[in-house]
C-alpha cells in the first residue's frame, strides 16, 4: 500500500487533468519507477442525472443500486489524477486498457456516500510495451464494498525483465446471441458520461493520429454493456473479469453471447465481430461466496 497520498477535496475536472497529461507526455520516458503514491477522495455522492445518462449509454436500467462499472466511472478521475502526476512515468495519451476485473462485495446504493482510492503497481514487460496494474477500492464508511484491477498497456515503452510468451487461451463462448449495431459516435457518447476523452475513442481522425486505423469503443463501455445485458441475473456479490482482446471498431456490428455456468450465478460471455466471428472481448462473472 502506498505511503504518500493525494487527498482530493472534490472531483477533479477531467478536461483539465487530460490537458495537463497531454502537455507533459513528451517528458514521460518510462525510465522512473512507479511512484509510491495513492489518490484518495472521501465524501463522494452520486449525481442522479449523471447516473441516468451513463445508464442510458451503457444500457443499464436506472435502479437504486449502482452498476459495478459505475464505480469504475467514479474512480476514473482519481486514476487520471494519478496518471497526470509528474511522478508517474508513463504517458496517458495512447495508453490501452487490456483487461478489467471488478469485485462487488455487495450492492452499493444510490444514496450511499463513498470513499474511493487508487494506485498503480507491478510495472512489467509486455510484447508491445509496458503493462501496469491500477488498483482501486471503494468504501462505505470503513466497509470495503468494491474493488477494481485495471491493466493498462503503455505502447512503445520499455522496462527491464523478460517478456512473457503469448499463451493461446483458445476461443471463448460462441453460438446464437444478440446483435448490437454500434454507431460511429459511440466513443463520444461514452466520453460524455465517463470523462475519458482518449483520442483513440473520439474519431477515426484522432485515432489515426495515435496509431490506430480507426476509432475504437472504450473497453469500459464494452464491459458495462455486457453486464447490463445480464443485469437482472447477476448475483448480489460477484467478480467480473473482462479481457479486451481486439479493438471494437466503431461504427460496427457485434454479437453478444452469454452462457450460464450453472446454479452458482456464473456466466461466460463473449463479444464478437458479426461478419468475421472474431472474439473481441471475453468476459466472465463468478459469484462471491
TrEMBL record:
- Organism placement in taxonomy: Bacteria, Bacillati, Actinomycetota, Actinomycetes, Micrococcales
Show where the MaoC-like domain sits: 188-262
Q: From what superkingdom does this record's organism come?
A: Bacteria
Q: Which organism is it from?
A: Branchiibius cervicis
Which InterPro entries would you find in this protein's record?
Answer: HotDog_dom_sf, MaoC-like_dom
Protein name, UniProt field:
MaoC/PaaZ C-terminal domain-containing protein
**Pfam families for the chain:** MaoC_dehydratas (PF01575)
What family does the entry list? Answer: Belongs to the enoyl-CoA hydratase/isomerase family.
Amino acid at each position: 500500500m502506498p505511503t504518500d497520498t493525494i487527498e482530493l477535496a472534490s472531483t477533479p475536472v477531467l478536461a483539465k487533468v487530460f490537458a495537463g497529461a497531454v502537455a507533459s507526455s513528451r517528458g514521460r520516458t518510462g525510465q522512473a519507477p512507479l511512484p509510491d503514491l495513492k489518490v484518495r477522495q472521501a465524501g463522494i455522492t452520486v449525481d442522479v442525472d449523471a447516473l441516468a445518462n451513463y445508464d442510458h449509454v451503457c444500457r443499464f436500467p436506472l435502479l437504486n443500486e449502482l452498476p459495478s462499472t459505475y464505480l469504475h466511472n467514479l474512480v476514473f478521475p482519481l486514476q487520471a489524477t494519478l496518471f497526470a502526476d509528474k511522478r508517474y512515468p508513463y504517458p496517458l495519451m495512447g495508453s490501452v486498457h487490456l483487461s478489467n476485473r471488478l469485485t462487488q462485495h455487495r450492492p452499493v446504493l444510490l444514496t450511499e456516500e463513498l470513499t474511493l482510492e487508487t494506485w498503480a503497481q507491478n510495472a512489467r514487460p509486455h510484447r508491445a510495451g509496458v503493462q501496469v496494474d491500477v488498483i482501486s477500492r471503494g468504501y462505505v464508511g470503513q466497509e470495503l464494498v468494491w474493488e477494481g484491477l485495471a491493466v493498462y498497456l503503455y505502447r512503445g515503452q520499455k522496462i527491464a525483465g523478460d517478456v512473457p510468451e503469448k499463451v493461446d487461451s483458445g476461443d471463448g463462448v460462441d453460438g446464437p446471441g444478440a446483435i448490437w449495431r454500434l454507431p460511429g459516435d459511440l466513443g463520444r457518447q461514452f466520453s460524455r458520461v465517463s470523462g475519458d476523452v482518449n483520442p483513440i475513442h473520439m474519431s477515426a481522425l484522432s485515432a489515426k493520429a495515435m496509431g490506430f486505423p480507426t476509432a475504437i469503443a472504450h473497453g469500459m463501455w464494452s464491459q458495462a454493456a455486457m453486464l447490463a445485458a445480464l443485469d437482472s441475473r447477476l448475483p448480489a456479490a460477484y467478480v467480473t473479469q473482462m479481457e479486451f482482446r481486439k479493438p471494437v471498431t466503431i461504427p460496427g456490428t457485434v454479437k453478444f453471447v452469454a452462457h450460464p455456468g450453472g446454479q452458482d450465478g456464473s456466466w461466460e460471455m463473449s463479444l464478437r465481430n458479426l461478419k468475421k466471428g472474431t472474439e473481441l472481448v471475453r468476459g466472465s462473472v463468478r459469484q462471491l461466496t
